[in-house]
Amino acid sequence: MTRLFVVNVLLGIPGIIYYWLLYTYFTGGVLFSGLSSAGLGQRMESYFSSNQVLGPPLAIGAIIWVLVNVYLVNRRKRNGDCQNASGKTAHWVTAFASTLLPAVLFSAAALV
Fold this sequence. Notes:
The chain crosses the membrane at residues 53-72, 92-111. Keywords: Membrane, Transmembrane, Transmembrane helix. Helices cover 77% and strands 0% of the residues. By secondary structure, it is mainly α. The protein has one domain. Helix 1 packs antiparallel against helix 3 (50-79) and helix 1 crosses helix 4 (85-111). The longest helix is centred in the middle third of the chain and has 30 residues, at 50-79. It starts with a helix and ends with a helix. The relative contact order is 0.17.
């Protein structure tokens, strides 16, 4: 379980950038709004639209996260640590929570 925690914390470190991009996109931040006061659905999309900016990094990060965690579940199952469904559920909950840990710590440090 230690390997699971460490690997997902390391995968969560670049995830801070994805959370920031999503935040600026949904709040209409300066990065994507072009300094206009138009809302999310009313903006004109430029050549470098926010979907093109957000899509590939989020997709690549999600694919890597899922593949790594599927490998870790299979590895735990071969070792006998994950025999029942509750072991797999605990694995995925731990993986998701430990991936969010760097973003939570970064946000908490920014508030101080």
